[in-house]
Amino acid sequence: MRGLIILVTLCGVVFGRAQISGEEKNVREELNPVEIIDDSQFTKENEATTEALVFERRAKYRALPDQYNEESSPVAVSKTCREKNERYSIPGSCDRYIECLNGTAEEKTCPDGLRYNPNVNFNVYPCQYPIDVPCLERSAGLQPPQPTEDCPHQFGYFKIGDAKNCSGFRNCVNGVAYDFTCPDGLAFSSESYRCEWPDESKDCDAEAFLGFRCPPVPESRELGAPAGFRFYRSPSNCQNYFLCINGKPRRLSCGGYSAFDESSESCISAVDIPECPAELRARAAQIIEDEKLRSTAEAAFAKLRYVQSEDVKESTTVSYDA
Fold this sequence. Notes:
Layout: H1 2-31, H2 44-63, E1 86-89, E2 96-101, E3 104-109, E4 115-116, E5 127-128, E6 156-159, E7 168-173, E8 176-181, E9 187-189, E10 194-196, H3 206-210, E11 230-233, E12 240-245, E13 248-253, E14 258-261, E15 266-269, H4 278-321
Antiparallel strand pairs: 1-2, 2-3, 4-5, 6-7, 7-8, 9-10, 11-12, 12-13, 14-15
């Protein structure tokens, strides 16, 4: 009886292993199917068809551009809005940008002569003058100029005149020119779009523009060049004087009826400057006389008010005594 039980157990184990081996084989065949091809099917016609198919596929792979090659792949402009209302630059351009309004993206271009400024708030107009928008890396992507008869661009500030006439400049708005002149003694700078000292504007010859050349300053072998700046009265106008910095002149002016005195390096009354014209000196003398009369009148008026105030005090004291 015991031998029969052992025999039945051994048969069950053998049968179970056979079932497991068969299932593993089926699984391997499903995961790695091997197609059994009959060699008789490969005729010359089939071989030609197969070679043509392989050649076609290789040609397609060769025709695909290298997506990692910057030269073969164009710059893609994303028009996806990350926020509902925003703006962002377009790579390679100084004046084009994407604007998202209520989640809708639209490509826009600034007016000719202006640049897109990505640093302004959304409620501020983003197109500004080049001086306010550094865009060296994107300067190659500007739109073509749209000049008019008087303006090289639709918008911008532009110098007019040559190096000897540096004070004039032109502001173009929608292609219409408006001409301006810097204050006396200043020159327009194309770099800063402002009126600067002539020696600080690269477009200006300060000496030719002001008509003055700073005299050479003698230097001591022991001490070198003298410290401080030098002032010189204008040879053509006693009210003007020049401040020389690094050998370049800057023109300044005394106000009113005063003139520059070289001995004190200050502005005093033109009466005391013999180099001033007679008319200016006479007018300065009249101003001095008028000032004396005004001072005398003010002193007399102040004295009268003092006497009146004393009389009021005396009358008030008498009334109290009564």
